[in-house]
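Hi team,

Filling in the usual template for the complex we talked about on Friday. All components are listed, including any nucleic acid strands or ligand strings, so the model treats them as one assembly.

SUBMITTER: L.P.
PURPOSE: interface mapping
COMPONENTS: four
RESIDUES: 428
SEQUENCES:
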Amino acid sequence: MALPGTEQVLAEGRPLRRDAARHREQLLDAAAKVFATQGLSASVEEIARVAGVGMGTLYRRFPNKEALVDELVRQQLSDFIEAATAAAQLPGGVGLEVFLWRVGELLAARCGCFARLWTGANTERLVEEARLRIHQLLADSQRHGRIRPDAVVSDISLVIWSLMGVISTAQTAAPQAWRRALELLLLALRSSEVPLLELAPTPQEMSEIIQQKA
Amino acid sequence: MALPGTEQVLAEGRPLRRDAARHREQLLDAAAKVFATQGLSASVEEIARVAGVGMGTLYRRFPNKEALVDELVRQQLSDFIEAATAAAQLPGGVGLEVFLWRVGELLAARCGCFARLWTGANTERLVEEARLRIHQLLADSQRHGRIRPDAVVSDISLVIWSLMGVISTAQTAAPQAWRRALELLLLALRSSEVPLLELAPTPQEMSEIIQQKA
DNA sequence: CCATAAGCGGAAACATCACTCCGCTTAGGC
DNA sequence: GCCTAAGCGGAGTGATGTTTCCGCTTATGG
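RESULT (copied from the run log):
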C-alpha cells in the first residue's frame, strides 16, 4: 500500500470519489469568500467551517493553506486568459478595453488573493500566457488607433494594479469605484496628444515582480 | 500612588524621560522600516530588535502592536496634510499636481501600513482635514483650468488608492512604476474633451470606507 | 552625591493558528 | 447487499507571536 497522503492530487490517475470532488469545490468557494472578506490571514478553520467540512477534509484535498491560495490564484489567472481570448475575437480594436472592464469585474468578484496574484506557485506559465494575450490585444487596439501608440504591455499591468488598489480599499463600501478609476485610466491610454515622459516598468522589472516570493 | 500602566501616554502631563523619548522615536523608525519590507504581519520582536530595545520598552511606550501601527498611520496622514498645505501656496493652480507627486513619494517611502491608512484609530480628524485641503487644491486647479471641471474630491482618492496598488505590487522591483501610473492618471484628470460617465464614490461611501475596521 | 520614580530587558505566560492523527463512516465496485 | 479502500471529523500538537511581569538600572531634581 502506498504511503497515506501521497495520492491526494487528483491530477495523476484515478478520479476523486464524488463526495470528495464536491467537497473540494465547496472548499475553494468558501476560501474565496472568506479571503475576500477577511483577507489572506483568515484561519483555515473558518474556511472549513464555511465550507461545511472538517479540518481533515481540507487537508486531505490540499497539502497546506498555501496550496489552497495558489489554486484560487490559478483560477483567477485562467479567468483572465479566458477573458482575453474572448476579447481578441472582437472587431475594431476594442478588445483591450473590453478585456480590462472584464478584468475589473473578475478582480472585484474575487478580491481575496491580490497579494499572491503574481507570485503564487506554478503560475509562471499562466502569467506568461496572459502577458502574451495582452500584448496581442494592445497591438490590435493600437493598429486601430484606439490606444496611444506609446503605450506598452506593462502599462496594462499598471492599470490592473491600480484597479487592485482601488478595489482592495473601497470594494465593500463603494463597489462601483473601480469603474470610475478604469474610465480615467482608459481615457489616458487613449489620448495621445500629450507624450508620456515617465518610463514604464521594464521587462526585467516585470519578471522580478513575478518572481518575488512572499 | 496611581496604578502602574495608566500614565504611559505622554499626551497628558509630564514629559517622557529623555532616553524614553529617544527610544520611542527609534521604535517608530524601526517599525516603519520593518513593516515596509515584511508587511504588517512582521513580529513585534523584530521591531524591538531593529530598534535596539527590549520588548518591555516597546510595550511601555505603546499599549500594543496596533497602537504602534496607528501612530505610523497618523504620521503619514500628517505628512499628507503638510504636503497639501505647502502645495496650496503655489501659484497657477499647479498645487494639486505637485501635491499628488509628493503623495506618491510619501507612499513609496513608507509603504508598510497601506491596509490601515484610512481606518486606523483616531484618524478621523486627520482624514477629514486632508479631505478639506484636497478639496481646496482641486478647486484652485479647476479655477485655473488645469483639471477637468467634472473631477471631484473622491477622484483624487481614487488616484491615491491606485498609486497604493501599484506601489504595493511593484515597489521593490520597479520603484519608478508609480510615476508612470500617476502620469497617466493626471493626463486623464486634465483632458476634459471626453465627459466621464461612471460615478465617483459618493460622500456616504467615502465615510463608510474610513469607518470600516479591519 | 543621593533618593527615587521612571524606565529597562527578557523570560515566562498566554493566545492563535497551521497542521496531524486516528477511530469511525460511506461510496461504489462486485 | 457486502466489502473495503477512500474519505471524514475534530481533538490534539507544536510552532509562532503577542503581552505581561518583575527584579535590576538609570536619569534627574534637590
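MY TAKE: The CA atoms of residues 19 and 25 of chain B lie 10 Å apart. The longest helix of chain B spans residues 65-87.

Thanks, L.
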